[in-house]
Amino acid sequence: MNNDREILIVGNGEDLCSKGTIKNFENIVAADGGYNNIPKSVKPLCVIGDFDSINEKDLPERIEKIKFSQRKDFTDIELAIVYSIRKGYKNIFITGISGSRKDHFFTSLMLLKKYEKYNIHLLTSKEEIFILKPLTIYKFLNMKDKRVSFFSITPKSEKIVSKGFEYEYKNRTLYFDSPIGVSNRIIKDKVLFTFKKGKILCFLEI
Q: Which keywords does UniProt give here (predicted)?
């Protein structure tokens, strides 16, 4: 992705977006052992973390290393998010967020909420995960037949309108304790989704 306002953070997890997707990013940060998930032909801006999952001596000298104590209040992924924000990146993508450790996956969802005022997307091998904000029209283009799920992460999200989905909404309300928004399907080439109140977590098949 040839955009100096976008950055990809690569974590140490096993569930990654494709190598082709990683290579498409101009700006990449490795969160600790996430360096091992980056193709060797790609040079990250830096490796950041406490270096508990990679030996600092194994890293090429030409790569910047930002090391923190293992006794810290932030995960390596969050350190990389803060680094990206301070560097002025507006669109932050994160992959390698989980593997066998499902608590790491949940932690990444919590970070989406914590930094919700920024445009942060999680990328796995099968889906893109991000927060939808009210009073915004979201368009999903050329995603026909893809699965998509919507979950309210506020007590309720109100006046939802959607078009081009198998299950369309007209002034619908989603509640935090209801899974009714799971496993919808895009059935047209051009679809839209918008709502007036609340916040919604979206899982989009890729």
A: ATP-binding, Kinase, Nucleotide-binding, Transferase
Name the pairing type of β-strands 28-31 and 6-10. Answer: parallel
Half-sphere exposure of 109 (CA within 13 A, CB side): 13
Q: ∠ at Cα 12 (7, 18), nearest 5°?
A: 60
DSSP SS3 for 184: strand
| CB-based contact 47:63 (threshold 8 Å) | yes
Give domain 132-205's CATH superfamily. Answer: Thiamin pyrophosphokinase, thiamin-binding domain (2.60.120.320)
Break the chain into its structural domains and give their ranges.
6-125, 132-205
The residue behind tokens 């992460």 is 153
Residue for token pair 């999952």 = 53
Which CATH number does 6-125 carry?
3.40.50.10240
Q: Helices marked H in 17-153 — which ranges?
A: 19-24, 76-86, 102-114
User: Hey, what are 161's tokens?
Assistant: 């309108």
Residue 98's pLDDT band (boundaries 50, 70, 90)?
confident
What is residue 142's DSSP assignment?
S
Judged against a pLDDT cut of 50, whether residue 57 lies above it is answered with yes
Angle at 80 between CA 75 and CA 85, to 5 degrees: 125
Q: In degrees rounded to 5, what are phi and psi of residue 23?
A: -65, -25
Single-letter code of the amino acid located at 26: E
